[in-house]
Amino acid sequence: MIAGQIALARPVTGSKAQSTEIRQLVRKLATWITAFALVATATATPARAQSSRLPIVRDAEIEHLLSDYATPLLKAAGVRRDRTDIVLVNSSSFNAFVSGRKIFVNTGTIVQSDTPNEVIGVLAHEIGHLAGGHQDRLRQQIDRAQTISVVTALLGMTAAIAAASGGHGSVASAGGGLAAGGAEAAKRGLLSYQRSEELTADRAAVDYLNKTGQSPRGLLTTFTKLQKNIALISDRINPYRVSHPMPRERISALETIARKSPYFNRSDPAKLQERHDMARAKILAYTAGPSAVESFARETKSAKAAQYGRAIARFLYGSPREALPMIDKLIASDPSNPYLHEIKGEIQLKAQNAAGAVEAFTKAARLDKSGSGLIQSALGHALVLAGDPQSLRRAVGELEVSLSLDPVNPVAYRHLAMAYGRLGDIGNAELATAEEKFHSGQYREAKVFAARAKRRFPKNAPQWLRADDIQRFQIPRSR
Fold it and tell me: In this predicted model, what pLDDT tens digit does every residue of 93-149 receive, in sequence order?
């Protein structure tokens, strides 16, 4: 953009006209520099820019599975588990990325991975980024790239101003080309750095897998799949203009060290494979519908996963009454599985059987060893729907437990607001609604309900102070 603007600069005569032209060019340059900085930041840290808009999904079963995959890897990498969150993104594409202390995993990554080891390899790679401090160093590289491009742009601007003031249009164009060339060089340097960090994370992943006695085969399998997906267009991809190495390059870099692993031929435990397949069936039922579940059921070796997917699809798209005996059959074969009872609770809710849902969710919460607040939240919801005073009071207790385990769950706050409202406790109902809006990112609405809640409590009471915190919260400026 700068090159075009400078090339069109007309000759000027006289010191006043020349001074005006220079000021205009400086303003244009400042605008361009600012635009470059924003684009560079957004390109290098997409999660930071997009995480608030990502379609995040919550599921106790799949979150527990991913946690079991990641925990030994985090320990091997020296990364604290209690400071790292794994977030599930509702997207059918195969992708995972890191932002801050969060690892984001697309649902499509799980569905498209035939084995747990493939997802474990992906997580090991992302943990390599965390342990290596790659995000912090990337920000330093962004600063360096911006400095290079700005200095080059200043040199180009100086040449262009001198040429334009003397009427030399071709030299002015060259000055603009120097500015644009500097930006391109900075961009290529940044992309080259990112590609090197990706290869470093790949090697770190193999190290973590070896330390935990797991096979690095899944990493190679993943890159082989990616290579097949881009085979028809790979000759049209400029490898110097992408942020990740080409899959064939990653396979070449990893294959030797991966095959040297004493665990290369180690298979996933059968029980873990079954959990993985059940997670895949569940995701397909919720996101792709009965036909996708049937295709999966015909291909999978796990009869249990096939039945699980069919039961969920039947309850979502057919009749809860037909789904209930299907899930009961699975429970009979695996009565200690909390997530089967959780699905039964969901089926009972759809069938408008609040008492049956309370019973199922109570069993699920008792059996759940992962400490998930989601099942407690579902139990609280069922108790609210039961509606009698005793159930409502119990709902408040269960939802408070849920929020102590998962304090940023807006759905639990919504159910809590319903429970308090039906009990006639308007102050706590409005405070819970303020929390729901706050944790959903609806800050202005949160402030409205927080102001209402403050009027219901004595000044400096705990509820008043929390409402005051929400009301005083500085809403982030949208970029």
Answer: 888 888 888 899 999 999 999 999 999 999 999 999 888 654 544 444 444 444 444
Check pLDDT > 90 for residue 430: yes
Residues 22-69 pLDDT 10s: 444 444 433 333 333 323 333 333 333 334 567 999 999 999 999 999
Lowest-confidence range among 9-13, 226-230, 409-413?
A: 9-13
Domain annotation covers residue 64? yes
Query: The dihedral of CA 431, 432, 437, 441: what is its sign?
Result: positive
Q: How would residue 255 be classed by pLDDT, with cut points 50, 70 and 90?
A: confident
Contact partners, residue 20, CB within 8 Å, separation at least 6:
12
Residue 213: Cβ within 10 Å count: 12
Q: For residue 197, what pLDDT band results from cuts at 50, 70 and 90? A: low
Q: Domain for residue 71, yes or no?
A: yes
233 located within any domain? yes
**118 lies in some domain:** yes
- Taken as a whole, the chain contains a residue count of 479
Kindly list the strands in the beta sheet with 96-99, ordered across the sheet, starting from the edge strand earlier in the chain: 56-57, 85-89, 102-106, 96-99
Judged on CB neighbours under 10 Å (0-12, 13-18, 19+), 134 is buried
Q: Which domain holds residue 244?
A: 1-266
* Lookup: tokens for 61: 């079963």
Q: How confident is the model at residue 429 (pLDDT cuts 50, 70, 90)?
A: very high
Radius of gyration in angstroms for the set of CA atoms belonging to the chain, rounded to a whole number: 28
Number of domains in the chain: 1
Beta strands at 85-89 and 102-106: parallel, antiparallel or unpaired: parallel
